[in-house]
Task: structure prediction
Amino acid sequence: MRTTDTISWQPTSWTTRQAQQQPRYDDDGELANVIAQLSRLPPIVVSWEIETLRERLANAQRGNAFLLMGGDCAETFEDCESDKIATKLKILLQMSLVLLHGLKKPIIRVGRMAGQYAKPRSADTETIDGVTLPSFRGALVNRPEFVPEARIADPELLLRGYERAALTLNFVRALSDGGFSDLHHPQYWDLGFLNHSPLKNQYQKIVDSIAESLEFFERVSGGRAPHEVTAVDFFASHEGLHLLYEQAQTRFIPRQKRWYNLSTHMPWIGMRTAQLDGAHVEFFRGIANPIGVKIGAAMDDGWLQGLVTTLNPQNLPGRLALIHRFGAKDIEKSLPRAIAAVRETGQQVLWICDPMHGNTETSSGGLKTRRFENIMRELELAFRLHAEHGSYLGGVHIELTGEDVTECTGGARGLTDGDLQRAYRSTVDPRLNYEQSLELAMLIGDLGKPAVNRSTP
Ligand code: PEP
Ligand code: CO
Result:
C-alpha cells in the first residue's frame, strides 16, 4: 500500500464511493446504535492468525500448497447448531485429507463459514403472483419468508449474525484443536456412494492408501494420531458485502501498524461489487487481510489489472487471490486472457477456481441447480489451462454441505432433476452434498497431479 493512501485511508473511506448491494434501513438511529455496539464488541479473529494465513497463501501462490475454500452459499441462523457445524467441518477436513493424499502438498483449509450471512442479489425486489417485496439479502439483513415483515432490513440482525459467527468459530476452534476421532479412520467415513461409481476401484484405492498412510503416521509417532501431533488449522472467510458490518469490526493494530478486518480471516469481494471505483474496492484496499476477488468473463483487461494494482500495490505475497468463476463454457476463452492481463502487471496473485457460480442453471422443475459434470469440467480445464500458460492453480472455492441434500445433479449416484425435490434446502445457491464433495476431492487429487501420474485419461 502506498504510504500516503494508507495514511488517508480510514475504515469509513468507502462511504465517499458508490456502494452496490447495500440494504436500506428505515431507522438510521437504530442502525447507528448497532454499528457502534459492533465496533466495541471483541473481534471474531485476531491479526496474528490472519498473518499466518497470509503466509500460507503466499506458499500456495508459489506452488507449494493448495487452498480448499468451501461451505454454504449462505449460512442461516437456524443452522448454527452443533451437529450441522461439526458435519460441515468434517467434510472439509476429510476433503483436505483426500487432497493432501492426491496433491502431496499442504492443504490450507478455509471455510465459507462463521459469517457468510450477507448475499448480493440480481434484483432489489422479488415479485410472486403480482406481489413485490424487497429481495432476501441474507440472514444478516432480513428473512427469507415471502411476507412483508420478513423482508424489512432489521439492524438487530447484524448483532445476531456477529454472535452466531462467534459461536460457530468458537466451536470450530474447539473441534479442530481436539481433532475428530473418526477423521483419521477412513473406514468410518460414509463411503456407500463408492459402490455406485464406475470409478469404484480407483476411489477405493485412494481411501485404502489414505488409511495406510494414517496408520503408518500413528505407528511412527508412538501411537498418537496426526491431530494430536499437529493441531488442525482452520480459517474462516465470507463475502465482505455489508460494508457497515465489516467496517465496525475493522481495527488498527498498533503492533502491526495496519488496519485489519477482524470479522474473518479472509474476506472476498463478490463479482457484483468489484467495480474499480466502487466502495468495496475502496474498503478492501485499506485492510491488511489476505483477500479474494471474484473474477468473471465480463471483466476486461483494464479492470482486472486495476484490481490487481489497487488492491495489492506492494505486490505482497499471499495478499490477493483471484477467484475465477467463468463457467465450463467460457473458461477456455476467458482464463488465458486473464492470466496474460495479470502477467502484464508484473504482479503475483493466487489463482483459485470457483467452478460453481459460472455453472448455475434452472432444472426442468424450476429449481436452481448445477451439474457435477460441468463443475468437474471447469476444474479440469482450470488445472490444464493454468499449466499450459505457465501459471499455477493454487486452490478451489466450492459451495458444499456435509449433509445429504439434493441440490446439484450428477455425481456417483447420478442424481437427476427429479431427485432435487427430495432434499433441496438451500435458500440461495445449490451446494454439493457430502458424497459429491468427497468425490470431487478425489477427482481434484487426480487432476492436480503431473500428467504422467494421473490415473484418469
Ligand atoms: C457467492 O460466492 O455466493 C457469489 C454470489 O459469488 P459471485 O460473486 O462470484 O457471483
Ligand atoms: Co453462491
The domain at 4-449 is CATH 3.20.20.70 (TIM Barrel).
